[in-house]
Amino acid sequence: MIVGLDIGTNLTKATNDGERVVVFPSLVVYGEEKDWSLKGGSKKVYIGEEAMIVSQTMENVEVLRPLHEGRIMHQSYIEIAKFALNLLDKNAKVVATGLPVKSSKKERENVLNSLKNALNCEVILLPQPVGSLIYMGMKTGVCVDIGFGTTDIVVLFDMEYLKGDTMLVGIDDIYNNLELFVRNEYGISITPEEMAKLLLENGEVGRIRGGRRIVVKREDVIQSYEEIVKGWVDRVASRVKMLLEGLSTSIVENLVITGGGSLLPMVYELFQREFEDIGKVVKPDDPITANAKGFYMLAKKLKGLSEEVKEEKEEKEEKDAKKGKKK
Ligand SMILES: Nc1ncnc2c1ncn2[C@@H]1O[C@H](COP(=O)(O)OP(=O)(O)OP(=O)(O)O)[C@@H](O)[C@H]1O
Ligand SMILES: [Mg+2]
User: Fold this and answer.
1) Which bound ligand lies closest to the C-alpha atom of 150?
2) What is the mean pLDDT of the chain?
3) Distance between CA 247 and CA 260 in Å, rounded?
4) In the structure, what pLDDT confidence band is assigned to residue 238 with cuts at 50, 70 and 90?
5) Looking at residue 317, what is its pLDDT?
6) Are strands 160-167 and 151-157 parallel, antiparallel or unpaired?
7) What is the pLDDT of residues 197-219, one digit of tens each?
8) What is the whole-number distance in angstroms between the Cα of residue 148 and the centre of ligand 2?
9) Ligand 1 pocket member 170 (CB < 6 A)
10) Global pTM value
């Protein structure tokens, strides 16, 4: 009945119970109609994992991501939302979702209306990092959400939005810099997915080039990664500190970092060090899905209340009707 939906630049996360979360790449591919179709009816829109495969194996296809630099690329955003609901709950009554903190009013209005129409249900729109704060049970606090495309910051006081910011730097900046290093040193290009594998799973990445195997391992890149990530955290942290300047210490009691970026090597530790004179930095148990779970929790709370009120009203009406009959 209720769905928490977090459409990110890189990954879409959705849940209909606040616990299990489906995660798929935020990818939409509009394929060309095939010359022949043997299975009947050629499919033209691919989403998620399927879109990933199609984009790697088919030529002449248009690959779209619903968000770019914090802006919404409209139709693919709606396709992704519909796809997520089809996976979870076709009859959802309420969808709670998030947008970058600094999305424009007009953009929010557009998204709200087109989601309502496309999904045929009530839609609640929140600033993205709020999901993680709710998930962690914090009504007051600061949350820094390091995503693939943007880093979003929000300051809440007693569940009211105080201030926030969207920085157009995300994990992709770290990856781009590291990719440059790999290209210079090894002469091969590697994708963001391969980069994550290299850094997080200690995997290796290879290409055939000039009739030879070229393989890059974690230990080949880690030193360069450390330099890049230090400068990167420095930049993000100073922007966050600027936003916190002058705030009451009671608000900054809860300092959260979330999003996939908080899972990359060294990032959490560097943030803790940057903010040690302000407070303790904490991280949700699963930073990638925390926003979606928090959106679900908030919608449930809001909706649960109004459902209760409605039920009470209905009960009362029923009683009144019975009374009326007796008379
Ligand atoms: N355990 C993990 N599994 C998958 N991705 C991970 C993991 N740890 C770190 N990452 C990185 O996190 C990225 C996804 O992070 P996240 O879902 O927060 O971004 P997003 O919400 O898509 O982006 P944005 O918020 O900027 O729109 C992946 O691209 C990957 O590089
Ligand atoms: Mg995100």
Assistant:
1) 1
2) 92
3) 27
4) very high
5) 78
6) antiparallel
7) 999 998 899 999 889 999 999 99
8) 7
9) yes
10) 0.90
Residue 327 has pLDDT above 70, yes or no: no
**Would you say 5 and 81 are in contact if contact means Cβ atoms under 8 Å apart?**
yes
pLDDT at 35: 67
Instruction: State whether the beta carbon of 9 lies less than 6 angstroms from ligand 1.
Output: yes
Q: Which residues neighbour ligand 2 (ion) by CB within 5 Å? A: 8, 147
CA distance 291 to 23: 12
Q: Are 64 and 30 in contact (CB under 8 A)?
A: yes
- Cβ 29 vs Cβ 54: under 8 Å: yes
- What lies within 8 Å, CB to CB, of 89 at 6+ separation is 1, 3, 16
pLDDT band at 74 (very low <50, low <70, confident <90, very high): confident
Cα 176 from Cα 180, distance rounded (Å):
6
Is the distance from the beta carbon of residue 263 to the nearest atom of ligand 1 less than 6 Å?
yes
Q: Which atom of ligand 1 is nearest to the CA of 287?
A: 18
- Amino acid at site 296: Y
Please indicate whether residue 164, judged by its CB atom, sits closer than 6 Å to ligand 1. Answer: no
Kindly give the number of the ligand 1 atom that is closest to the alpha carbon of 264: 9
Between strands 122-127 and 212-216, the pairing is: unpaired
Which protein residue has the closest C-alpha to ligand 1 atom 21?
8
**Could you read off the pLDDT of 75-132 as tens digits, one per residue?**
899 999 999 999 998 889 999 999 999 999 999 999 999 999 999 999 999 999 999 9
- Domains of the chain plus CATH, in order, are 1-33+42-136+285-327 (3.30.420.40), 173-226 (no CATH)
Q: Are 124 and 298 in contact (CB under 8 A)?
A: yes
